[in-house]
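Crash report, auto-generated. Payload:
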Amino acid sequence: MSSDRERREILITTIADLLDGVRHVAVGASSPIPAAGAMLLRARQKRDGKPPVRISILGSQAHNFFTNGGIELFDCAAQGRVDAFFLGGGQIDGHGNINLVGTGDYPRTDVRWPGSFGSAYLYHLIPRVILFREEHSPRVFVPKVDFVSARAITPEVARRGGPYALLTNMALFDFDREAGGFSLRSVHPAYTPADIRENTGFAYAEPEVVRETPRPDAATLALLRGQILDELAETYPAFARAMKQAA
Amino acid sequence: MTEVVALEALVSRIAPGQSLAVPVDRSGVAMAATAAMIEAGIDNLHLVCVPISGLQADLLIGAGAVATLETSAISLGEAGGAPRFGAAVKAGSFRLRDATCPAIHAGLLAAQHGVPFMPIAGIIGSDLLEVRPDWKVIDSPVGNSGKVVVVPAIKPDVALFHAPEADRDGNIRIGRFRELATMAYAAKRTLVTVERIVDRNLLATEDSAAGVLPSLYVDAIAVAERGAWPLALWDEYPADETEIARYTAMARSDDGFRAYLSTFLSRRKQVA
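Recovered output after restart:
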């Protein structure tokens, strides 16, 4: 399915763009597309002779320099040494709060997701948290999450971390920490702002003219389909295989 | 002294009702020992996942061995959601203590340092504070005033993991998976399965000693070849993706899970 591949390639490239300027980006569990985006950024910076980017892919041996066990990512974030990270959510609301636990009443939730992972902590500490969720639907993007795994804004405590952008299969949003909400930045090819309105269950700001998310150029695609998928295969063999087979 | 015992004797040191700390999939999961535990009917466990788990927790949950589950997540990774975990949450089969990864590390660190609790950054605003009344928000007693979360020490009765090798003195090579050491420092007892026991002394050089958990913290060792299968063991073998996918498909139903478990247990016996 080449259209599925094209969609993923746009997501990976958009992530690399969103990470522009970071010195160290970490990628958590079960995140092949963010991992590929981080690897693409690193490869592009190297190719263009720009400042190097460190990446820490959780679960990787080759793309992870931590030596102090599972706690090091969290310590590193607390020391201000992680600039960017990715979080998802079974539900994400218009205030940027995320739910990784489940729907309905806790603990016997109707649908149960894996759990909060490190979100409750990292959301406070990492300045550029990119919310990434492929499914763009009203069941994911809700007015209010059923369970707050991690809250985006907490005036009662000082924090440097929080949401920076929200990327989905259909669109890219910016997060405005002052206003406490999202604004539509661009829609991916083939979608319209009306599609986004129809599939988003929360209110967000929309500019008068909504741009289209740029497609990757030929050089980026060559890098992505070659070196990046090879690097990714160590941690995400099934994903890398599927992307190669779609070629 | 660290004893070397048979796998069945190793797991017999885990009593029903005890708290059991187990590591994340990539660090070295004692799957052969997990099969032996299920075989021996050790149940009513308080499972502490450091800081998350996957197939091991799902098997123990499906087998009805877990009374309390303390974890930051249960996931089978690329294979998807953990089916028996999902079913058990829905049925209310165990007490759920949802956490966040660094809070589990912090709880173990408190035990490692012999203090009752550990402060931890972040978390404020999360509903985890609502469902974990044992976590407290305090005003920082030192430095700038401000709210900070404290979590109680986690002192597991038993820590259980799998590693490539032990030496004759019972020192265990854990590489850079330092959370295995943290688990052992915090736990009252540590049980380890290994691929092999080697003649050389792992503490002989700085190079090897840096990645070693000393036998002081290790109560008993059993040899279990391919003891993490079907999960990966770092530097030794990759995960058996086909087997994990087969589990994920079969474990969707209770009957399917039973069928899988029976094959899994008998296959383990053949290896042993």
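Post-recovery validation: Chain B has two domains: 3-99+155-271, 101-152.
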